[in-house]
Protein backbone atom coordinates (compact mmCIF):
# COMPACT_ATOMS: atom_id res chain seq x y z
CA UNK A 1 0.00 0.00 0.00
CA UNK A 2 1.38 3.39 -1.02
CA UNK A 3 1.09 6.07 1.59
CA UNK A 4 0.75 9.61 0.37
CA UNK A 5 3.84 11.66 1.16
CA UNK A 6 3.22 14.83 3.17
CA UNK A 7 3.41 18.04 1.17
CA UNK A 8 6.40 20.34 1.42
CA UNK A 9 4.34 22.83 3.44
CA UNK A 10 3.19 20.07 5.82
CA UNK A 11 6.78 18.98 6.35
CA UNK A 12 7.81 22.56 7.05
CA UNK A 13 5.05 22.94 9.64
CA UNK A 14 5.96 19.68 11.36
CA UNK A 15 9.63 20.65 11.54
CA UNK A 16 8.69 24.08 12.91
CA UNK A 17 6.53 22.54 15.66
CA UNK A 18 9.59 20.72 16.97
CA UNK A 19 12.42 23.04 15.94
CA UNK A 20 11.10 26.48 16.85
CA UNK A 21 10.48 25.80 20.59
CA UNK A 22 13.90 24.14 20.85
CA UNK A 23 15.59 27.08 19.13
CA UNK A 24 13.81 29.60 21.36
CA UNK A 25 14.68 27.65 24.50
CA UNK A 26 18.37 27.41 23.61
CA UNK A 27 18.40 31.14 22.85
CA UNK A 28 16.77 31.88 26.21
CA UNK A 29 19.36 29.72 28.01
CA UNK A 30 22.29 31.40 26.28
CA UNK A 31 25.82 30.61 27.40
CA UNK A 32 27.05 27.12 26.57
CA UNK A 33 23.58 26.11 25.39
CA UNK A 34 23.58 28.72 22.65
CA UNK A 35 27.23 28.04 21.88
CA UNK A 36 26.34 24.37 21.40
CA UNK A 37 23.52 25.35 19.05
CA UNK A 38 25.74 27.60 16.95
CA UNK A 39 28.52 25.00 16.92
CA UNK A 40 26.18 22.33 15.55
CA UNK A 41 24.75 24.67 12.92
CA UNK A 42 28.19 25.92 11.88
CA UNK A 43 29.71 22.44 11.67
CA UNK A 44 26.80 21.05 9.66
CA UNK A 45 26.75 24.16 7.47
CA UNK A 46 30.49 23.83 6.87
CA UNK A 47 30.06 20.21 5.83
CA UNK A 48 27.31 21.24 3.42
CA UNK A 49 29.33 24.09 1.93
CA UNK A 50 32.32 21.78 1.54
CA UNK A 51 30.10 19.52 -0.57
CA UNK A 52 29.13 22.52 -2.73
CA UNK A 53 32.63 23.82 -3.42
CA UNK A 54 34.00 20.35 -4.14
CA UNK A 55 31.94 20.51 -7.32
CA UNK A 56 34.05 23.47 -8.50
CA UNK A 57 37.48 23.32 -6.87
CA UNK A 58 40.07 21.11 -5.21
CA UNK A 59 39.87 22.07 -1.56
CA UNK A 60 41.21 20.54 1.67
CA UNK A 61 39.34 17.67 3.29
CA UNK A 62 36.12 18.21 5.21
CA UNK A 63 38.01 17.47 8.44
CA UNK A 64 40.23 20.50 7.76
CA UNK A 65 37.13 22.63 7.29
CA UNK A 66 35.47 21.29 10.43
CA UNK A 67 38.62 21.87 12.49
CA UNK A 68 38.84 25.52 11.51
CA UNK A 69 35.11 25.96 12.04
CA UNK A 70 35.49 24.59 15.56
CA UNK A 71 38.41 26.93 16.22
CA UNK A 72 36.57 29.96 14.86
CA UNK A 73 33.36 29.41 16.81
CA UNK A 74 35.06 28.55 20.08
CA UNK A 75 37.24 31.64 19.74
CA UNK A 76 34.22 33.84 18.96
CA UNK A 77 32.82 32.68 22.30
CA UNK A 78 35.89 32.52 24.52
CA UNK A 79 37.89 35.25 22.72
CA UNK A 80 41.29 33.76 23.45
CA UNK A 81 42.98 35.39 20.45
CA UNK A 82 42.03 38.09 17.98
CA UNK A 83 39.93 36.52 15.22
CA UNK A 84 42.27 38.16 12.73
CA UNK A 85 44.97 35.71 13.89
CA UNK A 86 42.84 32.71 12.88
CA UNK A 87 41.93 34.26 9.53
CA UNK A 88 45.61 34.92 8.87
CA UNK A 89 46.56 31.38 9.90
CA UNK A 90 43.89 29.91 7.63
CA UNK A 91 45.01 31.98 4.66
CA UNK A 92 48.70 31.13 5.11
CA UNK A 93 47.97 27.40 5.45
CA UNK A 94 45.92 27.45 2.26
CA UNK A 95 48.69 29.28 0.40
CA UNK A 96 51.35 26.80 1.49
CA UNK A 97 49.06 23.85 0.71
CA UNK A 98 48.74 24.92 -2.91
CA UNK A 99 52.53 24.72 -3.34
CA UNK A 100 52.22 20.95 -2.98
CA UNK A 101 49.08 20.49 -5.12
CA UNK A 102 48.86 20.03 -8.87
CA UNK A 103 45.09 19.89 -9.37
CA UNK A 104 42.92 22.71 -10.62
CA UNK A 105 43.45 26.44 -10.39
CA UNK A 106 45.46 27.67 -7.42
CA UNK A 107 43.46 30.89 -7.22
CA UNK A 108 40.15 29.05 -7.49
CA UNK A 109 41.15 26.47 -4.87
CA UNK A 110 42.21 29.10 -2.33
CA UNK A 111 39.25 31.35 -3.09
CA UNK A 112 36.71 28.54 -2.77
CA UNK A 113 38.13 27.36 0.56
CA UNK A 114 38.26 30.89 1.99
CA UNK A 115 34.73 31.65 0.79
CA UNK A 116 33.31 28.48 2.32
CA UNK A 117 34.93 28.92 5.71
CA UNK A 118 34.33 32.67 5.95
CA UNK A 119 30.73 32.53 4.76
CA UNK A 120 29.71 29.98 7.39
CA UNK A 121 31.85 31.15 10.28
CA UNK A 122 31.47 34.92 9.98
CA UNK A 123 27.69 34.64 9.74
CA UNK A 124 27.12 32.12 12.53
CA UNK A 125 29.87 33.79 14.57
CA UNK A 126 27.97 37.07 14.30
CA UNK A 127 24.82 35.35 15.57
CA UNK A 128 26.78 34.01 18.53
CA UNK A 129 28.22 37.44 19.30
CA UNK A 130 24.76 39.01 19.14
CA UNK A 131 23.55 36.63 21.85
CA UNK A 132 26.59 37.47 23.96
CA UNK A 133 25.77 41.19 23.82
CA UNK A 134 24.38 41.84 27.29
CA UNK A 135 21.86 42.79 28.45
CA UNK A 136 20.03 42.92 25.10
CA UNK A 137 21.51 39.90 23.32
CA UNK A 138 18.65 37.49 23.92
CA UNK A 139 16.05 40.07 22.89
CA UNK A 140 17.96 40.91 19.71
CA UNK A 141 18.20 37.27 18.67
CA UNK A 142 14.49 36.79 19.33
CA UNK A 143 13.68 39.89 17.28
CA UNK A 144 15.94 38.67 14.48
CA UNK A 145 14.28 35.26 14.40
CA UNK A 146 10.72 36.61 14.61
CA UNK A 147 11.37 39.16 11.86
CA UNK A 148 12.99 36.61 9.57
CA UNK A 149 10.22 34.06 10.10
CA UNK A 150 7.49 36.65 9.64
CA UNK A 151 9.14 37.92 6.45
CA UNK A 152 9.52 34.38 5.08
CA UNK A 153 5.90 33.45 5.80
CA UNK A 154 4.51 36.70 4.40
CA UNK A 155 6.71 36.52 1.31
CA UNK A 156 5.70 32.90 0.66
CA UNK A 157 1.96 33.46 0.85
CA UNK A 158 2.10 36.96 -0.62
CA UNK A 159 4.05 35.66 -3.59
CA UNK A 160 1.65 32.76 -4.11
CA UNK A 161 -1.51 34.88 -3.89
CA UNK A 162 -0.34 38.13 -5.48
CA UNK A 163 2.70 37.19 -7.56
CA UNK A 164 2.55 38.76 -11.02
CA UNK A 165 -0.58 40.81 -10.41
CA UNK A 166 1.14 44.17 -10.04
CA UNK A 167 4.66 43.61 -11.35
CA UNK A 168 5.39 41.61 -14.48
CA UNK A 169 9.11 41.60 -13.93
CA UNK A 170 10.38 39.02 -11.43
CA UNK A 171 12.36 40.10 -8.37
CA UNK A 172 15.68 38.46 -9.34
CA UNK A 173 14.90 36.02 -12.12
CA UNK A 174 18.50 35.17 -13.03
CA UNK A 175 19.13 33.61 -9.62
CA UNK A 176 15.65 32.75 -8.32
CA UNK A 177 13.04 32.68 -11.11
CA UNK A 178 10.08 32.18 -8.77
CA UNK A 179 10.61 35.23 -6.54
CA UNK A 180 8.26 38.12 -7.22
CA UNK A 181 8.17 41.76 -6.21
CA UNK A 182 4.81 41.13 -4.57
CA UNK A 183 6.40 38.47 -2.40
CA UNK A 184 9.32 40.75 -1.57
CA UNK A 185 7.07 43.62 -0.51
CA UNK A 186 4.84 41.23 1.45
CA UNK A 187 7.97 40.06 3.27
CA UNK A 188 8.85 43.59 4.32
CA UNK A 189 5.33 44.12 5.66
CA UNK A 190 5.48 40.78 7.43
CA UNK A 191 8.79 41.66 9.08
CA UNK A 192 7.40 45.00 10.26
CA UNK A 193 4.29 43.30 11.61
CA UNK A 194 6.37 40.66 13.37
CA UNK A 195 8.67 43.32 14.81
CA UNK A 196 5.71 45.37 16.00
CA UNK A 197 4.09 42.42 17.75
CA UNK A 198 7.43 41.49 19.30
CA UNK A 199 7.94 45.05 20.59
CA UNK A 200 4.51 44.99 22.24
CA UNK A 201 5.26 41.66 23.97
CA UNK A 202 8.87 42.52 24.81
CA UNK A 203 9.50 46.27 25.26
CA UNK A 204 13.19 45.79 26.13
CA UNK A 205 14.44 47.19 22.85
CA UNK A 206 11.86 49.94 22.50
CA UNK A 207 9.12 50.12 19.90
CA UNK A 208 10.84 52.36 17.33
CA UNK A 209 14.25 50.60 17.41
CA UNK A 210 12.53 47.22 17.13
CA UNK A 211 10.56 48.37 14.09
CA UNK A 212 13.68 49.83 12.50
CA UNK A 213 15.59 46.57 12.95
CA UNK A 214 12.64 44.50 11.74
CA UNK A 215 12.18 46.74 8.70
CA UNK A 216 15.86 46.48 7.83
CA UNK A 217 15.65 42.70 8.12
CA UNK A 218 12.62 42.66 5.84
CA UNK A 219 14.43 44.73 3.23
CA UNK A 220 17.66 42.69 3.12
CA UNK A 221 16.45 39.20 4.10
CA UNK A 222 15.78 38.02 0.51
CA UNK A 223 19.43 38.68 -0.30
CA UNK A 224 20.43 35.85 2.04
CA UNK A 225 18.27 33.43 0.09
CA UNK A 226 19.62 34.78 -3.21
CA UNK A 227 23.23 34.35 -2.06
CA UNK A 228 22.59 30.74 -1.06
CA UNK A 229 20.76 30.11 -4.37
CA UNK A 230 23.73 31.61 -6.20
CA UNK A 231 26.11 29.18 -4.53
CA UNK A 232 23.85 26.19 -5.22
CA UNK A 233 23.32 27.13 -8.86
CA UNK A 234 27.05 27.49 -9.34
CA UNK A 235 27.59 24.06 -7.80
CA UNK A 236 24.70 22.55 -9.79
CA UNK A 237 22.68 21.27 -6.81
CA UNK A 238 19.10 21.90 -5.69
CA UNK A 239 19.59 21.78 -1.90
CA UNK A 240 22.68 21.97 0.28
CA UNK A 241 21.55 18.66 1.83
CA UNK A 242 18.41 16.74 2.74
CA UNK A 243 18.93 16.98 6.49
CA UNK A 244 15.76 18.93 7.37
CA UNK A 245 12.53 17.58 5.81
CA UNK A 246 10.81 20.20 3.70
CA UNK A 247 13.69 22.64 4.04
CA UNK A 248 16.84 21.02 2.68
CA UNK A 249 19.94 21.60 4.75
CA UNK A 250 21.17 24.03 7.38
CA UNK A 251 22.35 26.45 4.69
CA UNK A 252 18.92 26.31 3.05
CA UNK A 253 16.98 26.85 6.26
CA UNK A 254 19.24 29.42 7.93
CA UNK A 255 20.43 31.34 4.85
CA UNK A 256 18.49 34.47 5.79
CA UNK A 257 19.46 34.30 9.47
CA UNK A 258 23.08 33.90 8.39
CA UNK A 259 22.98 36.91 6.08
CA UNK A 260 21.27 39.36 8.44
CA UNK A 261 23.25 38.35 11.55
CA UNK A 262 26.41 40.32 10.64
CA UNK A 263 24.26 43.38 9.94
CA UNK A 264 22.52 43.14 13.31
CA UNK A 265 25.86 42.50 15.02
CA UNK A 266 27.18 45.79 13.62
CA UNK A 267 24.15 47.51 15.15
CA UNK A 268 24.99 46.03 18.56
CA UNK A 269 28.29 47.89 18.46
CA UNK A 270 26.27 51.10 18.81
CA UNK A 271 23.79 49.90 21.44
From TrEMBL:
CC per GO annotation: plasma membrane
InterPro entries, per database record: PC_trans (IPR000374)
Keyword Phosphoprotein: no
Membrane topology summary: Multi-pass membrane protein
Reactions catalysed according to its record: a 1,2-diacyl-sn-glycero-3-phosphate + CTP + H(+) = a CDP-1,2-diacyl-sn-glycerol + diphosphate
Keyword Zinc among record annotations: no
Pathway: Lipid metabolism; Phospholipid metabolism; CDP-diacylglycerol biosynthesis; CDP-diacylglycerol from sn-glycerol 3-phosphate: step 3/3
EC number: 2.7.7.41
Enzyme category, top tier: transferase
Spans through the membrane: 12-45, 57-78, 84-100, 107-128, 140-159, 180-201, 207-227
Chief place of localization: membrane
Any one GO molecular function term: phosphatidate cytidylyltransferase activity
Protein location: Cell membrane
Family in the record: Belongs to the CDS family.
Protein name (record): Phosphatidate cytidylyltransferase
Protein species of origin: Prosthecochloris vibrioformis
